[in-house]
Model the fold of this input.
Amino acid sequence: MNIYFLVEGDTEEKVYKAWLKYLLPELTRIGLPHQVDHHNYYLFNAKGQPGIIDRHLPDAIANIQEYSKYNYLVICLDAEEVTIDYKKQEIYKCLKSNNIDLVNIHFHIIVQNRCFDTWCLGNKGIYPLQPEISPLLDYTNYYDVSINCPEIMGKLDFNTHAQFHKDYLKELFKINNLKHYKITNEVIKEEYLEQLIARVQNETEHLPTFQTFIQFCNMIKSKL
Done:
């Protein structure tokens, strides 16, 4: 079993690497795609959009076709200001315009809706019992993500959903005496992932795109 992961940025590279260690410990990360052998995964950081779709996705498929040992290609990227379906259409439009035939490649798309920080808002353990200080108080009054699904939260008066979701998370970390710029140092911990998994197990309609990632890992686990 070998998997080629194409992720959007630095945060995803660090966090997916840690989470895969907990979820799929049988797999070993390799540094270069040609090193693939048995029970390996290769993870490529595309450094953002649109490069992940326009440039790196065709390159990833070419690598997989060349080395022929990969069973799955998984692309992980933010929805940002468009819908999940629209983001998927962008991907398939790229494949079509480049005349790329997936042939025997098992292709999975994981859209982080709205962004990776949105998933992180699903950890109920980082919420105070009662926010008392703005802007967190204002954010909670607008939309309490400890109760409601973070993925369908609006953007308040921010320019984009991602900006608001990132700032909401920053304020939650601040209330817990954690620095936003070290957020990945907390998110990569197994207990943080366990909190997110508990959230979707208890509230099955929440974080549906995070659930696609967990479901994929569970499916791979069953095949190992």
Residues 51-67 form the longest helix (17 residues). Residues 151 and 207 are 6 Å apart (CA to CA).
